[in-house]
Design goal:
Blueprint lengths: L1 H21 L10 E7 L2 E4 L3 E14 L4 E14 L6 E3 L3 E14 L6 E14 L3 E3 L9 E13 L4 E12 L3 E15 L1
Antiparallel strand pairs: 1-3, 1-11, 2-11, 3-4, 4-6, 5-8, 6-7, 7-9, 9-10, 10-11
Length: 189
Amino acid sequence: MKILKNILVSILVLSTLTIASSFEQNGVKEGNNRVSIGLNSIIDNDDGEDPTGTFYGEYGKFITDDIEFDIYTLISLNNVKNKNANYKYHDDSYITYHIGVGANYYFLKTPTLTPYIGAKYYYTDSTLDVDRADGSSVDFSSNGANIHMGLHKFFSENLAITPEIGSTFVDFSDYMSSYANIYLTYFFD
């Protein structure tokens, strides 16, 4: 097993060096734009619900070679798994909308790999219609923060695959969920 692991790591390193000699990424630089699309995968959350499908779109603008500002939207179709006796759910599924702005800091840039860290402010709203046992309704809109880190793996000068992990906090303090995502990313002037 150790030999197989070493062979796979060697192939990955050699393929990266081969790709690096044929092009140098042109995406992460001042003045460029970035568009990312992908699917969001929640690792865990504290409300007993799991998204069944999520679309993620993001636009970013580089203000320097290392700093990017971005806006994003996330739309997810959710299923209610744990029905709480204190709540009356009108539907078994609902849609959640996230809209946010943020910034990323890029470091340790190479011709084919560029890691980053970042944070986002978001606003979220939901179509979930819930009544409490006492007759009052529940408002699922909130503000919060997201912290994340990721890596652009370039396959051409402007096209990359982007794995990202992060955590989301409601009202900037209460933990909501962690996620691991993979995006298709395109950079342009």
